[in-house]
Amino acid sequence: MTPVYCTKGHENPAGNRFCHQCGDKLAPSAAGGMSAGIILDDRYRVILQLGQGGFGRTYLVEDINRFNERCVLKEFAPQVQSGSALQKAQELFEREAGVLYKLQHPQIPRFRELLRGQMAGVESLFLVQDYIEGQTYRELLNSRKSKRQLFSEEEVKKLLLQLLPVLDYIHSQGVIHRDISPENLILRNSDRLPVLIDFGGVKEVAVSAISKFSQLAFSTHIGKPGYAPEEQLKKGKAFPSSDLYSLAVTALVLLTGKEPQDLYNSFKAIWQWRHVVSISPNLAAILDKMLLRNPSQRYQAAGDVIQALEPSGLKTQPSNITQINTVVVAPKAPPAPPKPAPAPPPAIVVHQPAPIVPAAGHGHLNPVGILLFPIRFLWHCFRTLTVLSIGLLLLAGVASWAFPKFISWTPPQLPTAISSSKEESRLDNIFVRREALQIPEEFFNVLVNEQFYNRHPELQDRLLTNNQEDESYRQKWYDSADALLSKLERANLSEKSRRQIGQYTEENYGSRQSNLSNEELIRQTDEQFYQLFPEQQGQTLNPETWGQIWYAIATNRAENR
Questions:
Q1: Do residues 78 and 33 make contact, with C-beta atoms less than 8 angstroms apart?
Q2: Among 165, 348, 351, 468, whose CB has the most other CB atoms within 10 angstroms?
Q3: Mean pLDDT of the chain
């Protein structure tokens, strides 16, 4: 039988629960993963599985050809079973990443190679990198919280000054980390320096290479919701200031012991943290600037933050650069973010939701005016093939807030080859469910359209027709509508709060402000909203669409208190 190894590498008979030499508890092999003791590529012996994420499993291994040095083995896309596809993906990965092999820094783990290997009879790709012995800052924070302690201002400032030179270095090489968080920072045991691990760019290039030769639909928008800024999660764009944003969020989590969603008001799109912890005005102002929503308004370079932290001009000496070859993989140097029009000064931190104002920069949304066609009415136009003169309702700034652009389905001729009975049934069902909820039709259609076009950017906001080539897209539109209705039904909102959806304005806000000023109410609203719509986590809620649902939940909770 295959022997089992403890974290110190001691060999134990299969079936042992504890190491017979050191007493360590032996981790059982995960289902479907590699068992301890298995040797991959005649070189890497598995000690234990460290974790499992969206890109595959991660293992602690030792290099038996190099003095049993410990390494981390990251698995990529085990579903790719074609040997030729894996070979091509590996070659593409190494070709695109090769230019970045020159990166060398003692606070970055050394990336060794990308190899192919067998796992449970299936070939997979594995990324090998040095193992950093120490604790992640998430583990350190959890340990302190168990003792009712947090990181002090001096500790966080020291961490910033130790990490900013690392960011300054990788940014100078055109590399963006993209995934900074307490989980991806390790306090190394040997020298007590923070080490930046798990480069998001590595994942992006590896997944991009794999996706070219497989049917897998991996998202290349790398970053943790709450930590990554909006431009990264929504548009897949990352700049040096994006890393600075994530670093500032990490600093707040260490200072407050709270998670990003507890410190960020997604309805108002502002950070609310100053009432949680008291720190020096200088550091608070620096963190606020790093956290600005507009990337061009943040600090543009890590060196700028260092200078702000040390206004006396006494700069931290950069770390000596190691001569050991280091492989850090990341995408090509990103273009500089466009310079927007001058923005108003940062919002003042308050303890209650702010008046609802339209959010800027929402892709295909048009706040000037819309053309609205009730879909059910249009469907009967399609079915009867009657040329009707339809009155169009043009709304141009007459409301206290403007509607987004609606999917203006013009009534084309219905091809005889398409059977309408099934689609009519789906539309009727959607109509009946929406009417039962008393959700305004215009708002409902706008929100479904926003979801639909965000999921299908290839349409580029093209209006759907009843032609056969659009049939699959129409079915997906119906799927989105059904899913939204199901979630609104589960929200269990009162009739009053449902009927008001799509009509919450600044005036409504003022009349209920006293009911919604409680932080606990806001927290509970966030919790319920993100349970229903987890894909909105870390996003800035458009007050004209998703913000309306958030406000309905808040209003419903306030009325039931």
A1: no
A2: 165
A3: 74
Is 300 or 201 the better-scoring residue by pLDDT?
Answer: 300
Among the residue ranges 155-169, 198-212, 405-419, the one predicted with the least confidence is 405-419
Q: Which amino acid is at 307?
A: Q
Exactly one of 24, 41, 179, 198 is catalytic; name it: 179
Digit-coded pLDDT (tens) for 131-142: 999 999 999 999
Q: 124, 128, 101: which is closest to 114 by C-alpha? A: 128
Query: Rounded CA gap, 447 and 499, in Å?
Result: 15
CB 198 within 8 A of CB 54: no
Q: Is 179 a catalytic residue?
A: yes
Contacts of 440 (CB under 8 A, 6+ apart): 499, 501, 502, 503
CA distance 531 to 527: 6
The β-bridge relationship of strands 44-53 and 56-63 is antiparallel
- The CA–CA distances, whole Å, from 421 to 58, 376, 468 equal 50, 13, 14
Beta bridge partners of 73: 59, 128
Task: Give every CB contact of residue 14 below 8 A, 6+ residues apart in sequence.
Answer: 1, 2, 3, 4
CB 37 within 8 A of CB 4: yes
Provide the pLDDT for residue 396: 33
Work out the burial of residue 131: count CB atoms within 10 Å of its CB; fewer than 13 is exposed, 13-18 middle, 19 or more buried. buried
Do 63 and 69 meet the contact criterion of CB atoms below 8 Å apart?
A: yes
Residue in the block written with tokens 């302690």: 149
Note whether 434 and 485 are within 8 A (CB). yes
Strand (E) or helix (H) holding 40:
strand 39-40
Domain with CATH 1.10.510.10 in the chain: 134-336
Say how many Å lie between the first and final Cα of the chain, rounded. 62
C-alpha separations of 50 from 22, 56, 323, 346, 408 in Å: 20, 11, 29, 42, 51
Q: Is the pLDDT of residue 356 over 60?
A: no
Q: What was the pLDDT predicted at 538?
A: 77
pLDDT band at 262; cut points 50, 70, 90: very high
Go through the chain and tell me how many residues it has. 561
**DSSP β-ladder status, 39-40 and 11-12:** unpaired
**Cβ–Cβ under 8 Å, residues 179 and 223:** yes
